[in-house]
Every structure is written in structure tokens, then in C-alpha cells.
Design brief:
homodimer, nine-stranded mixed beta sheet, 2 domains, alpha/beta, TIM Barrel
Chain lengths: 362, 362
Amino acid sequence: MRVEDLDTPAVLIDYDRLRANVERMAASVEETGVALRPHAKTHKMPEVARMQIARGSRGITVAKLGEAEVMAAAGIRDIFVAYPIVGEPKLERLCRLASENRIRVAADSWDVLEAMSDAAIRGGLCIDVLLEVDSGFGRCGLQSPEQAIELGRRALDLPGVRLVGLMGFGGQSYEAASREEIGRIGREEASQLVELRERLCEAGVELEEISVGSTPTSRYAARVPGVTEVRPGTYVFSDRTQVHLGWGSLNDCALTVLTTVVSRPTRERAIVDVGTKGLSSDAAPVPGYGVVVGHPEVSVEALTEEHGILRVGDGRGVPVGTKLRIVPNHACGVINMFDDVWVVSDGRVEDRWRVAARGRMR
Amino acid sequence: MRVEDLDTPAVLIDYDRLRANVERMAASVEETGVALRPHAKTHKMPEVARMQIARGSRGITVAKLGEAEVMAAAGIRDIFVAYPIVGEPKLERLCRLASENRIRVAADSWDVLEAMSDAAIRGGLCIDVLLEVDSGFGRCGLQSPEQAIELGRRALDLPGVRLVGLMGFGGQSYEAASREEIGRIGREEASQLVELRERLCEAGVELEEISVGSTPTSRYAARVPGVTEVRPGTYVFSDRTQVHLGWGSLNDCALTVLTTVVSRPTRERAIVDVGTKGLSSDAAPVPGYGVVVGHPEVSVEALTEEHGILRVGDGRGVPVGTKLRIVPNHACGVINMFDDVWVVSDGRVEDRWRVAARGRMR
């Protein structure tokens, strides 16, 4: 089938670009000697995780236990759940997962570690944990070296839990004004953890792993001596935000949303059949809601739930029925709403992949 | 099961509030003599559509053919697809649907009408159409009475297509600064269509239906003589935006997202296990991303994909493990991401409903 024959809205994954993105990140990390553990929240598909692992990733990262379960069932056995696991139902599931796979989790509090210890003892297991440190993003994470040392020392005597490393996330890189600033954030995130590991070691807490990074910061963070692992996610598809932040060009974006012009109310306005329920309301560092491939004169000016409102310049070339491809602001938000994607290559539809971990929110 | 025992994040639907919202809108429209055709995009669930119909709704509205198919399969037979249907695959599905149910669709162009006529003739059918008129929102719709009259007259001779009415949507009411302004927008949307129907009638195009409205504007539009149908959607659950615009209070919001505090990095900050992938990035007319029920001192300050970042005042009362309920900015955006919801009443979980039309984007 040709791409133009697909009904819309539909997510297209350009297989050749996907492969190239997987290759590019793998090569860039490989030369630093650091391990790559991509965040699967971007794609939620075992098919993509397998490509990443085939090209040298040591495993994957996920945010949700449900995602880990889907990936493990598909044969992906080395998974970092980069999220604090809270509550009995999840702890039971974590133990089941950990008994059959190589699972690590994040934690940043005694409360989380203690409950995990109880669950692990009941399950006759030992769970590997990375302590999360706030890299200046202001989300989760330990707030000071002193706090980390106190928690690390306290956890030494906790049965069923083994501290294996530190994790950070320099999410403030998404607000950076320049590549220099992104580089600085990535290096600071990494150095902070490397120095903290030294201090923890002096305090008797020995940790191997220093896990950092996002798509913008990974290439900078991976070059800081002492870092052992980077966790970029969005690079695999890329999107308008990543292009703005310097991860390749629009021609590297593997994910587009195919949409149809359904109305031409005025000469300057076209309406397409995808809105926030397909592209999300996620903003980019630049105005608008996406880039229309091959139509630099067209802007995605606004979205409502099921309508995209395009400004189309002189309006020629986009009559009702025209199919357009939109590079979204944020690929992860799009994948989160679609049940399947079409895999395309050279204008032809080669495959259909289910977004197997979509909706696995718990 | 008690609500507190549910794992998170989870969507809770308060059954009693849902019933009250269904009742309140039905009663408010009933006294005007106008028909109610709620927009099912908000709930995407046959269970809710059946409640609306049982309380007097003549049928439902949907945005997507896929939603119509799910609803028709569940026995809801009178459906207005308030969206221009474009492309052969959809036209074939529309004909199948229309051959077994009472289906109406929207259109605002000759292109759409002509292709629909061809498909209907092939299917041996006649499709009922409402012409969409731009009510000043600047999305779809005919731009002037002259344009509407020209299209209406032209369509008179089109086989397989029967013009039955006019539809508007005063979406600009969501930007209104006051209830007076919302009332004015609703009345203007209605009056514009009623007057246009007169002019069309003089031009030989007779139409019965005048279909208008949204949750904010319906009660005003329904009171304009000549209006025959209103299509509010979000009222059924309500949300933070609707409360701000005057549809009841927070205590009328039937949809909340149950979430767990997973991290307390600082005294003022709590992190919960739902972010944009559960609450959406949809903004409200006021800052923030939701209201935490029973905690007026807490604000939902920011969201990332899987984290909600809360400012918690003095931080007492929300330790790790605390379950909180969030009234989202926009209920429709939440439903669009969850596969199921828990139906609760008086603190107990009574049922689990599948969001059957979720993901039916085409």
C-alpha cells in the first residue's frame, strides 16, 4: 500500500529514519564507552526496543511498571523503571517482574525504600535501586549531598534492597536558550552525580552506576568521566522540539502524523482532521503545533480536540482531500494516544505495529 | 472495593454526580422545548450515552466515524457526526452506518457534498446533512449567508444528499471573560443560524434543524426561538474549565483522576504519579493543571509526561503514599488517554467501564 492510501489521522514511522536515529545515538554514545539505556516512553513498542538493543543498548528505561511488563513479555529483560514504586499492588508486580528479569528501579526516599524492602523480603528477592538526585530540574530527587549520604548509609542495612547507583535528569535543558547551555546542563548533571558518588564512597556507600541524560543532554553528559549510562528517549523518532534543541534536522524526524484537509473555510485557512486528541497540546519552544512537511508556507496555528487549524499562505495546493504530514511538537505525546502506527519506507507502507505499552499507565 | 484501594493513576467517575449532571442539562434544555443531542466526545462510553438518552436526549453527537461505529454497535442508533467526512474509506463506512442507523453528518463545502453524493448513490442511500456555519470561532464553516445560500441551492439538485439543517459552534465562548459574554455568544450563534434559515427558505432551501451549542452556551442558545437542538458535551462530567465558565461548582465535577504522592523532595513540593500522559497539557482559563479535591492549599503547578508537580503549602498531610483526587482542566482530554474508568459512589467502587470509543480516531 502507498502512504497516500492510508486513512487519516494516522501515525507514520519512517523506518529508514528510525534506523538512522538508532544508529546515530548508538554511535555517539559508543565512542564514549558509556552504556546506552534508551527511554522507551517515547515509542512504547517492543519492535523499537529490539532495534535499540540490537544496536548495542544494554536494556531500556521505562516510567511505568505496566510498560515494563509489556516489554518483558516481549523478551526485553533488562529494564530500569526510572520511577519511585509506591503502593502494595505495584510492589507485588515489581517483585514478580524482578524475579524473572533484570529490573532496577529509582527511589528518592526512605518511605519508598522501606516498603520495597518489605515486599522484596516477602518475595525472597533483592531489588536493585538507583537513588534519584535532583539535577536542578525541580521534580523528584534528593536535594543535597548530605541528604543522599544519609539515605545511602541508612539503606546499607536494609535487606531486600541493593543500592547500585545514582540517577539524574537535567530536564531544564528543554528550556535552554542555546546548545552551549544544553551542554553545560548535561555536564553539570553528570559531574554532580560523579562527585556525589565519591562522597558516598567515602561515607561507605559504594555505587557503580551513574545514569543520566535526555536526548538533548546525553551526548554532553556521556563525555564526563565517571558516567556509566545515558537514557535518551525522544531521539528515536525526534520531533519539532528536539530539532529546535539541536538533535538533527526536520529530515531526521521519523514520526509524522498523516492528516487530511477536511475544510477550506477561507483562502488562508485550512482545517485538518487531527487536533489535540492526536497531536496533544504539548507546546514546543517555538509557537505553533507542528511543521507541515513540504509546505514551509503552512503553519499549524491552533488545535482544538479534533481539528487542526492551519494558516496556508495563498492557499493553493491544499484543497479539501489533500493529505499532509505533520511533524509534531512532541513525539511521546502523540504515541501516547494512538493504538498503532504504520511503518513506512520510500513512500510505501511496510508494516503496522501496535503501540503495545500504550495505556499501561499503572 | 473502596476508592482508596484502587491503584493509580486511575479515572474515577462519580456516578451520582454524573446522574445529576445528566439530569440538570436535560431539565434545563427540556423547559425550552429544544432537543438535546449531547456530544459523546467527552465520555466515549456507551454506558454514558445510554444514560443521556434515557433522560430524554434524542441521540448523540460524535466527531469521528469510529466513535459512531462503536456507539451504533452498542445500540445507540441516532447519531450526528458533526464533522466533514472526507475520503473513500470513510464514505464507505458512513454509508454502511447510515444504512442501518439514523445518521446525520456535517459539511461546509461542495467538495464534501459531491463526494458524499457519489458514495450515497452507489450505496443506494440518501444521507442527511447539516451545513456547518462559522459562528465566529474561526474553525470550519461557511463564512457568509451568501456562501451558505449558494451552496444550499446547489445542493438541492444533488442526489443522495438531503440538506436537513444548519449547525454552528460558538467555541469562542471558552475565551469569554464573563457569563454575560458567554450568553451573548450563545444567543448570537443561534440567531445567526435562525436568520440564515429564513434567508435560505426565501431562496428555496427549506431546512428544519438548527443545531447549536456547547456546555457554556447551550442554556442561552436553547432560548432563542427557532433553535431545534443543542449539543453540549463536557457538562456530563464537567471540569475545571467548565466550573470557571459557570457550569456548576467543583462539587459537580464527576470525573477526577486518582493519583498517588510518590516523592516529597522538599517541604513545599510533592510529586504525583500522573502527568501530561494522564491529565493532558490542555490549559484552563486559569493557571495550573487541575484542582486537588479537599486540599485548597495544594496547587498542580506543572506537569511533565509522567509526573505532576504539586505545591503543597506547609506540606503536612501529603506524605509519600497519599492518594489525591485531581479535577482536571479538561475532562475530554483525560478520557482520550485512559482505556477504562472506575465508577464510584459514596466512596465505593461500583463498576468499571471501558472507554469503548477511545482510540477510534478515524
